[in-house]
């Protein structure tokens, strides 16, 4: 099952939040969605599920335009973490409500997921801690048995163990290829180990799509030290500066070819060391133009 | 196949129970009034007590020299006395619906409860995120709107008939038939009127709740609308009777009089219009607008015009030939000023900010 978004545009107030957004995502994939605060990640998710009407563009699932065939939206689920209407509901009633909304909802699985985490059906959602609320949302998503699941900041404010539980649940669900996740998150470290692909949302559009394994094959993150305080021309020309501390420069070179290596060597660095390349580095390089270095 | 009605019913289970309780409470209120009325009837003077009292009254009036009053007092029979003091309804002229004396006509409490619940349902669903949940289910929004209406309207309509219906049954079981001076047509007029006003109140309240996104503005506005609409209607019927002579006299929500059919027609127009607007709003309003002052900005001027008309009806000075021009004109001018200010306020503040930065 494949979701395709084409030319999605959304203006809120006077700000064009989404501009010609295009991407696709299918079951069996975990896709990360990253961007700076206010980039439009949540707006994109809300637009995909038609909480927000797009000004232009189309969202289709398996070539079925969701405007023309709204029933196809049943293949998609998005539980907005900031707009839950069910704070006063018990977990039991919550399950009943979602079972009414999603015919494929598995009540037994929902109850089992709650029981595994010592959650009682008689508890009210609003009385739970943030971490347990996140678990309940995850339980609702998983029990819905819907193929395409949108998660918005699922790791926000959670302790290590609950994060690991959520990560494990996501990986297990995707393993058989029947489910797909689109995860919007500022937690780049979690996404790094989880996502197959990452979409970078910048100025309202998908500026870059990276497959982390492919990027790691062709790019390099280097730590460089030069005799002079100034940043050599070759570094500026071929790399994206990630960090500068005194004479120590950390930069991303994509692609990192023999020619690039030769150019850097010609600048006679005191130190040139390859460092592990992470999603955080790619994020920093994508938005580096907003940070100035001398 | 998703049952949207069932989802709405599950979500609003407590509100539905609240409606039933509200109806029960109004029944209790009318029950207390009934008890008082029945007690008054049960403790009425006997015929001989009445005749003794009448003779004494006639003697006194003759002593005072008021022979006409004495003759009138002597002619009123006991049966006539009981009827005029304990009959349940008054009938005036050609009014389709009688006026209550000791009986029940308009269940204003439940009408107001229905209005409040309409506002509450729309506000809770919009501001609480339930509408966002529904939007993601893949059901056409138009169908979702009508699912909500199909959950609430039958209950509200049914309760609007049940309360006066039960009271009428109680009257027939406990009062002499001659005192329940209500024809079948009159009874039907009461039931239809309550039904129409209650259903209209709910739909109107719900649409208002969809239109206004700020909770405080909605709460204050919805509350103020009640006296403004009630008062505005009275003035409108007085104006109508003065200008057209299609009515001999004005009416009100509680006592429509000859304006009864006009009010029923008005209910049809208002409920139909509000439902149409509500369905359109539900379909077209993008939910990022749900917390804005007006969720549908293109309705700004119609809203300003409507409120201005209402204020003019309420506070414009009514004379013998209609509204007096000069005291009345201030309201449309005020409405125009408010509308323009609202329209151009963002531009004005932007210019002001730019000027402040230059300074």
TrEMBL record, chain A:
GO terms for molecular function: ATP binding. The keyword Nucleotide-binding applies. Keywords: ATP-binding, Nucleotide-binding. Pfam families: ABC_tran. Residues 3-228 form the ABC transporter domain. This is ATP-binding cassette domain-containing protein. It comes from Lacticaseibacillus hegangensis.
From TrEMBL, chain B:
Coiled coil: none annotated. It comes from the Bacteria. Keywords: Membrane, Transmembrane, Transmembrane helix. The chain crosses the membrane at residues 15-34, 108-130, 151-173, 179-204, 216-240, 260-282, 303-323, 329-351. This is ABC transporter permease. It comes from Lacticaseibacillus hegangensis.
């Amino acid at each position: 099952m494949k979701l395709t978004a084409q030319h999605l545009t959304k203006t809120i107030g006077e700000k064009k939040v989404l501009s010609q957004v295009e991407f696709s995502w299918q079951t069996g994939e975990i896709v990360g969605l990253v961007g700076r605060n206010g980039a439009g990640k949540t707006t994109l998710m809300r637009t995909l599920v038609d909480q927000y009407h797009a000004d232009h563009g189309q969202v289709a699932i398996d070539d079925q335009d969701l405007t023309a065939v709204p029933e196809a939206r049943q293949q998609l689920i998005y539980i907005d973490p900031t707009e839950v209407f069910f704070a006063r509901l018990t977990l039991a009633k919550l399950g009943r409500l979602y079972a009414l909304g999603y015919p494929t909802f598995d009540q037994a699985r929902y109850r089992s997921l709650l029981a595994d985490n010592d959650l009682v059906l008689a508890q009210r959602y609003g009385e739970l801690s943030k971490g347990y609320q996140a678990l309940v949302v995850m339980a609702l998503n998983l029990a819905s048995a819907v193929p395409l699941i949108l998660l918005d900041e699922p790791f926000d404010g959670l302790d290590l163990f609950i994060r690991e539980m959520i990560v494990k649940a996501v990986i297990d669900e995707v393993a058989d290829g029947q489910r797909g996740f689109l995860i919007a998150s500022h937690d780049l470290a979690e996404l790094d180990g989880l996502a197959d692909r990452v979409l970078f949302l910048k100025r309202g559009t998908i500026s870059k799509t990276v497959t982390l394994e492919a990027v790691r094959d062709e790019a390099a993150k280097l730590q460089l030290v030069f005799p002079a305080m100034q940043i050599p021309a070759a570094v500026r020309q071929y790399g994206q500066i990630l960090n500068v501390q005194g004479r120590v420069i950390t930069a991303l070179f994509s692609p990192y070819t023999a020619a690039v290596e030769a150019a850097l060597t010609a600048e006679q660095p005191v130190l040139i060391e390859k460092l592990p390349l992470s999603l955080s580095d790619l994020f920093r390089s994508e938005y580096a133009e907003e940070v100035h270095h001398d | 196949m998703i049952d949207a009605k069932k989802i709405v019913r599950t979500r609003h289970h407590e509100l539905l129970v609240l409606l039933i309780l509200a109806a029960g409470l109004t029944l209790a209120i009318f029950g207390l009034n009934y008890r008082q009325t029945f007690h008054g009837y049960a403790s009425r003077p006997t015929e001989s007590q009445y005749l003794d009292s009448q003779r004494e009254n006639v003697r006194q009036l003759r002593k005072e020299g008021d022979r006409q009053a004495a003759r009138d007092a002597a002619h009123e029979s006991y049966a006539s006395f009981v009827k005029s003091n304990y009959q349940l309804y008054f009938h005036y002229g050609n009014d389709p619906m009688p006026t209550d004396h000791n009986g029940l006509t308009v269940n204003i409490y439940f009408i107001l409860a229905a209005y409040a619940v309409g506002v509450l349902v729309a506000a809770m669903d919009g501001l609480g995120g339930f509408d966002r949940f529904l939007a993601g289910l893949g059901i056409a929004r138009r169908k979702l709107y009508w699912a909500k209406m199909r959950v609430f309207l039958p209950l509200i309509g049914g309760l609007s008939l049940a309360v006066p219906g039960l009271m009428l049954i109680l009257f027939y079981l406990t009062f002499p038939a001659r005192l329940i001076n209500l024809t079948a047509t009159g009874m039907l007029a009461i039931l239809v009127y309550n039904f129409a006003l209650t259903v209209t109140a709910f739909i109107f309240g719900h649409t208002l709740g969809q239109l206004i996104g700020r909770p405080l503005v909605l709460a204050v506005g919805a509350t103020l609308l009640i006296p403004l609409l009630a008062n505005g209607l009275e003035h409108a019927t007085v104006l109508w009777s003065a200008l057209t002579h299609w009515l001999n006299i004005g009416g009100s929500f509680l006592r429509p009089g000859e304006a009864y059919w006009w009010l029923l027609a008005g209910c049809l127009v208002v409920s139909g219009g509000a439902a149409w607007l509500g369905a359109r709003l539900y379909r077209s309003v993008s939910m990022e607008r749900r917390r804005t002052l007006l969720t549908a900005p293109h309705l700004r001027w119609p809203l300003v015009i409507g409120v201005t008309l209402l204020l003019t009806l309420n506070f414009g000075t009514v004379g013998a030939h209609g509204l007096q021009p000069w005291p009345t004109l201030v309201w449309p001018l005020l409405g125009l000023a408010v509308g323009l200010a609202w329209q151009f306020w963002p531009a004005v503040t932007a210019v002001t900010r730019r000027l402040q930065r230059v300074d």
